Amino acid sequence: MSSSKPAKPAKPGKTAKAPETPKAPKTPKAESHLAMVRRARRINRELAEVYPYAHPELDFRNPFELLVATVLSAQTTDLRVNQTTPALFAAYPTPEDMAAAVPEEMEEIIRPTGFFRAKTKSLLGLSAALRDEFGGEVPGRLEDLVKLPGVGRKTANVVLGNAFGVPGITVDTHFGRLVRRWKWTDEEDPVKVEAVVAGIFPKSEWTMLSHRVVFHGRRICHARKPACGACPIAPLCPSYGEGETDPEKAGKLLKYEMGGYPGQRLSPPADYPGKPAPALGAE
């Protein structure tokens, strides 16, 4: 038999108080566009301190070499391209030389970069176009570059920003992934991503912003296992926690110079703090 006492009846004129329902957690207030812009610009400033040496990770000595290397970089690593281009440029140092190449011989040289038949076709086509339409020189305008075989906006912006000093935003897979993680945009289309980011930053920042974001994506904010616990901009990241948050475990995920390993360039800039990458066959 239960020994609990019966509940006291409510006093006349008053209603018995019902048990309180637990309150749901407050939904975070939506970030205004202005607040997002300020946060984005702060991320850029902090990345500039983390990567003061950020640079294009393709080896090149002139606009033609950068154009060719960028075309080759599709569906492979910059390291593999850098290990392949010394032999390619030794054989075909100018657009005229490359346009006259025997396809099968070029295919054999660039085979390590993958998709070598399609890339050979693009390189032969763009070299012939440079020879026939631009006097053997790489044009310095986006509208001319994107008409070349195998050259899209991403490649054109890489060449313009790094060979001609014309500001450009390079939207590769790393850049797109990070700007979506940072909630700068939810766009998937690279052209739309480029337009959104161009509206957040002044033109003078576009090229270096691209390098910093790509550097961060390759070294810390990886696609599968971002090293959140070792990320210097974690307090500014709305996606913090998608990856490893334990600092010690996250530190083991760091790549390239952040993890004490060589970068992707065989001939990096003088101020690069990491080790040069090994030549093909010396890995």
Give the helix/strand layout.
Blueprint: H1 33-50, H2 63-72, H3 78-91, H4 95-99, H5 103-110, H6 116-133, H7 142-145, H8 153-163, H9 173-181, H10 190-198, H11 206-219, H12 247-251
Helix pairs in contact: 2-8, 5-6, 9-11
Could you characterize what this model shows?
This protein is mainly α. Helix content is about 45%, strand content about 0%. The chain has 12 helices and no strands. It has helices at about 35-50, 65-70, 80-90, 95-100, 105-110, 115-135, 140-145, 155-165, 175-180, 190-200, 205-220, 245-250. Helix 2 packs antiparallel against helix 8 (about 155-165), helix 5 (about 105-110) crosses helix 6 and helix 9 (about 175-180) packs across helix 11. It is globular, with a radius of gyration of 26 Å. The termini are far apart.
Structural class: mainly alpha
What is the residue-averaged pLDDT?
Answer: 91
The overall strand count is 0
Rg from Cα: 26 Å
Low-pLDDT stretches are: 1-27
Biggest beta-sheet profile: none
Total number of helical segments? 12
What's the order of the H and E elements?
A: HHHHHHHHHHHH
Terminal Cα span: 81 Å
How much of the sequence lies in strands comes to: under 5%
Shape: globular
Helix content: 40-55%
